[in-house]
Amino acid sequence: QVQLVESGGGLVQAGGSLRLSCAASRSIFSINTMGWYRQAPGKQRELVGNITSGGSTNYADSVKGRFTISRSIAKDTVYLQMNSLKPEDTAVYYCNARTFAFEVYWGQGTQVTVSS
Question: What is the pLDDT of residue 29?
Fold first, then answer.
């Protein structure tokens, strides 16, 4: 099993930055893919981006050039650096882990609110 704990959400003005953290309960190097999703009110959960165990990253078009996923293997933590935030980035952000055994785990979510 993998437990995921997110932190770092909050309220920020448009154009500002936030960094989210996702701490895993086991080595992230042993997890196939770790990702960030978000869900805005009345909308479906969508992929923001992910990072593979090999370090490759992938981003949704809507956040490319503004958001960056990184990791600390020593801390078993994945980060989502969000710059140039827009009101439409307002959502609950969830950390996700997909293991090599095809298991899927979710964090509890953290609210990000961007004011205009």
Answer: 84
Cβ–Cβ under 8 Å, residues 107 and 95: yes
Phi-psi category of 65—alpha, beta or left, where left has phi over 0 and alpha has psi -120 to 50?
left
Q: Identify the bridge partners of residue 112 per DSSP, sorted by sequence position.
A: 10, 91
The stretches in the chain having pLDDT less than 70 are none
Taking the C-alpha atoms of residue 113 and residue 23, their distance in angstroms, rounded to an integer, is 21
HSE-up of residue 110 (Cα within 13 Å, Cβ side): 20
**Checking DSSP bridges between strand 10-13 and strand 110-115, what pairing results, if any?**
parallel
CA distances from 1 to 29, 30, 56, 74, 99 (A): 14, 12, 23, 19, 9
